[in-house]
């Protein structure tokens, strides 16, 4: 049994972590740190946990915890680790952007298990990938791993409202989001940098462009991503490439049929569909932005770091209704 702590316990990703870790057979949730909610019951914020836990938000950390998850706003993880210290045995999983790009130079390992499992298993510090980055990387990295990204990749992806976090803004209010759809940060979303970094680690000669249009959908959670690029091979050849890439993956699956969000929301799965149109390969990927795109993947990384079965505590079920 390992002792776990969460830093920044009031947000959506922390809520998902709490739900998973409370049911994880190898984990005791030791503390949930929140400066804004200290001394309040965890169930007062994460209200679905009423009757399931008596945990109280803490204003103090336990520096002897075996693993700590950082669920802080982007830019705050670096500051927190500069201001607070943990024991030499403590492993850290950061869910912010702070260490993703320069992971190697900060002793952090980029935590995409499908392509970095061995390094994750030996790591002390993990930079958990972003939600869009996970969906897009899983869609295109098998091509990069085989030196097959020869031209620009065109990507369109839509995320639910939880992708924006709990802080209110003009575009997260119900009256704005309901019955609405919009694009934002076209061609310059912050996740592009880490996706390009992953691509070039596998295909160093990649000189083309990832053209990414992110969109806001009027649903709560999930990411639906389509990406297409030039591909000379057949659909069957593409299928063989992807099935080989994910033959040992615990949660990423290549499927023949149509993919949609109800197959993956509330699970740690990513489903991928391949279609060939002329000389273009269309790759569709779907996942839950709060689970495979954040907290579920963080626990998947924790499992690898401590030698637990990769799917331990993550046998989550989708619900169609």
UniProtKB/TrEMBL annotation:
EC class: oxidoreductase
The protein's annotated pathway: Amino-acid biosynthesis; L-arginine biosynthesis; N(2)-acetyl-L-ornithine from L-glutamate: step 3/4
Entry-linked InterPro entries: AGPR (IPR050085), AGPR_AS (IPR023013), AGPR_dimerisation_dom (IPR058924), AGPR_type-1 (IPR000706), NAD(P)-bd_dom_sf (IPR036291), Semialdehyde_DH_NAD-bd (IPR000534)
UniProt keyword list: Amino-acid biosynthesis, Arginine biosynthesis, Cytoplasm, NADP, Oxidoreductase
Localization per Swiss-Prot or TrEMBL: Cytoplasm
Any one of the GO CC terms: cytoplasm
Keyword NAD part of the UniProt annotation: no
Pfam family, one: Semialdhyde_dhC_1
Catalytic reaction equation(s): N-acetyl-L-glutamate 5-semialdehyde + phosphate + NADP(+) = N-acetyl-L-glutamyl 5-phosphate + NADPH + H(+)
This protein's record includes keyword Oxidoreductase: yes
E.C. no: 1.2.1.38
Gene3D superfamilies reported for this sequence: Dihydrodipicolinate Reductase, domain 2 (3.30.360.10), NAD(P)-binding Rossmann-like Domain (3.40.50.720)
GO molecular function terms attached to this record: N-acetyl-gamma-glutamyl-phosphate reductase activity; NAD binding; NADP+ binding
CDD domains according to UniProt: AGPR_1_C, AGPR_1_N
Residues of the active site: 131
Principal location class: cytoplasm
Top-rank taxon: Bacteria
Domain (Semialdehyde dehydrogenase NAD-binding) ranges: 3-123
Biological process, per Gene Ontology: L-arginine biosynthetic process
Family assignment from sequence similarity: Belongs to the NAGSA dehydrogenase family. Type 1 subfamily.
Role according to the record: Catalyzes the NADPH-dependent reduction of N-acetyl-5-glutamyl phosphate to yield N-acetyl-L-glutamate 5-semialdehyde.
Protein name as annotated: N-acetyl-gamma-glutamyl-phosphate reductase
Organism (species): Salinimicrobium sediminis
């Amino acid at each position: 049994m390992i002792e776990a702590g969460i830093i920044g316990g009031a947000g959506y990703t922390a809520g998902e972590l709490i739900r998973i870790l409370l049911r994880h057979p190898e984990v005791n949730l030791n503390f949930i740190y929140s400066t804004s909610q200290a001394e309040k019951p965890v169930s007062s914020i994460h209200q679905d946990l009423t009757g399931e836990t008596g945990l109280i938000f803490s204003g103090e950390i336990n520096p002897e915890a075996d693993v700590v998850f950082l669920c802080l706003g982007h830019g705050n993880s670096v500051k927190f680790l500069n201001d607070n210290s943990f024991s030499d045995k403590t492993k850290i999983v950061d869910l912010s952007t702070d260490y993703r790009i320069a992971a190697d130079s900060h002793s952090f390992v980029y935590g995409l298990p499908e392509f970095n499992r061995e390094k994750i298993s030996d790591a002390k510090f993990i930079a958990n990938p972003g939600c869009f980055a996970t969906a897009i990387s899983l869609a295109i990295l098998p091509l990069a791993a085989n030196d097959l990204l020869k031209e620009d990749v065109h990507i369109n992806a839509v995320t639910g409202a939880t992708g924006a976090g709990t802080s209110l803004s003009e575009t997260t209010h119900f009256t704005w989001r309901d019955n609405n759809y919009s694009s934002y940060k076209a061609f310059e979303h912050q996740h592009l940098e880490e996706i390009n970094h992953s691509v070039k680690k596998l295909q160093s000669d990649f000189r083309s462009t990832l053209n990414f249009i992110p969109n806001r959908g009027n649903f709560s959670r999930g990411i639906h991503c389509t990406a297409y690029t030039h591909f000379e091979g057949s659909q069957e050849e593409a299928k063989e490439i992807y099935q080989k890439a994910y033959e040992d993956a615990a949660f990423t699956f290549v499927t023949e049929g149509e993919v949609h969000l109800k197959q993956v929301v509330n699970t740690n799965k990513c489903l991928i569909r391949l279609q060939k149109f002329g000389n273009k390969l269309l790759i569709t990927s779907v996942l839950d932005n709060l689970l495979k795109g954040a907290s579920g993947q963080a626990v998947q990384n924790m499992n690898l770091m401590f030698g637990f079965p990769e799917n331990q505590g993550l046998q989550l079920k989708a619900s169609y209704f």
